[in-house]
């Protein structure tokens, strides 16, 4: 399956990664070989296999609706690049 | 040309659990920013979400109440997009195997019943809250991870009024099921609308627009009405409708474009590997079905059949679960359905509305309310006085007996006590008295009014009328 530079550009944009023209070239050829490798799976006969959504033989894992302690605010904001008035501060983004 | 309006609604109902969908953080509203967050809802590496069983149960409850098929196998998926309200850069949602499919909700509009199809209902987590300030945005993740049920209709709605009715009915059901506060101001119920027009009779759907920022049921109705007009004008002048998301500007009463880049959203859904699938067994569904409360629809029918309420009265009473409860509780102590319903729909609703209060926050008991009705019924206070007593009860929570005593509102029904007043009235209104004698029946009502006035409203009008009549007959003979 051919991966064009515009495919890579689109995926990079969706992931908010900026790529140079050289990187676009490099990654499109690399991604193409990755996809080709994974495409090998298509050769497997699966008509008798049920689709699955999870590799573990496990279902209905739930928890009770019981409160647990949250992190305190200082801890929460430790990962914030910047904070203000107890909030994460980010560049203004209007969807 | 005549156009047919096609509307579909998407409602996000916040499920009333104590903790978030996938972690034990509290869901309490109005707490300080970022005090209800943990490694799971903040998406720290290595943290693992585990579904809140109550969220699943509430979702099934709604699905059943909306006559949906609860799916035997359901799973969660990641909806990927970058926006600061999502700390994980994906939202845990459901894509191809939602919790519930294919139901309906019946609405009634101008005495016509109509089924609005429910396409699907699925569970997902809420995002954080953004506050835009100056050139930056503040993010509060207290809301991130709170369980939501997204309920999507079929494009079966054909007018803004139908959309409004659908929302009112859906809200009532969610309240009856006790799964959602439905407080739009707090965002616990949110609605987006899709709308398109097509020439009457056409098979293909027209291009739709999506309306957002609808903060009340009224806003939904107004925005849809505006959008119908806007689309109609475009179509009639031969222009095309652009498929886009529009925001409703409530104060300007118009929609405006969000001006997003034209590129279609690509959420790249894939199964959430951290959450194994859910197999919902018939026994579980049956167990939830068994304890479903009586829903407004059924309750209304029962109120009409069992208590002889009119369709209109029953409709108003069941529209709010707390009111229906209050009605039945009163009825158990005082078996006069029509009288109770009149008081609930009339004076009590008036008192509540003027205080912007719900019946749940009443400061008096059902027993007190029954005492009030008894006082009126036994003609110990007049209807007018009773309304004043009710106002006082709402203000202070005092018992009606105490208020009646304090305000000296007991009605005078003793003929003997009213005779003196009647004598005075007759003596002071010769003209009316003569009119009555000459056959003008209306004059009697005037005299009764004078008795009421002299007694400061405390005379029982029926008794006053009898006393006057007797006196006037005698007066004629004496003369």
What descriptors fit this protein?
heterodimer, A: 95 residues, 3 strands, B: alpha+beta, three-stranded antiparallel β-sheet, 17 strands
Overall 3D form of chain B: elongated
Can you list the strand order of the major beta sheet of chain B?
A: 3-7-8-11-1-12-13-14-15
Cα end-to-end separation of chain A? 34 Å
CATH domain class of one domain in chain A: Mainly Alpha
CATH topology of one domain in chain A: Histone, subunit A
Alpha-carbon Rg of chain B, integer: 30 Å
The computed structural class of chain B is alpha+beta
Using a beta-carbon cutoff below 8 angstroms, give the protein chain pair with the largest interface and the number of residues from each chain.
Answer: A-B, 38 and 53 residues
Explain how this protein is built.
The complex is a heterodimer of chains A (95) and B (479). Chain A has 95 residues and is an alpha+beta fold. Chain A has a domain of 39 residues: Orthogonal Bundle (Histone, subunit A). Chain A is 36% helix and 9% strand. Chain A contains 3 helices and 3 strands. In chain A, strands 2-3 form a two-stranded antiparallel sheet. In chain A, a hairpin with a 2-residue loop joins strand 2 and strand 3. In chain A, helix 1 packs across helix 2. The longest helix of chain A is centred in the N-terminal third of the chain and has 19 residues. Chain A is flat. Chain A starts with a helix and ends with a strand. In chain B, helix 2 runs antiparallel to helix 3, helix 6 packs across helix 8 and helix 13 packs antiparallel against helix 14. In chain B, strands 3-7-8-11-1-12-13-14-15 form a 9-stranded mixed β-sheet. In chain B, strands 6-5-16 form a 3-stranded antiparallel β-sheet, with no helix packed on it. Chain B is built from 15 helices and 17 strands. Chain B has 3 domains: 282 residues, no CATH class; 114 residues, no CATH class; 64 residues, Arc Repressor Mutant, subunit A (Orthogonal Bundle). Chain B is an alpha+beta fold. The mean pLDDT of chain B is 92. Strand 1 of chain A pairs parallel with strand 2 of chain B.
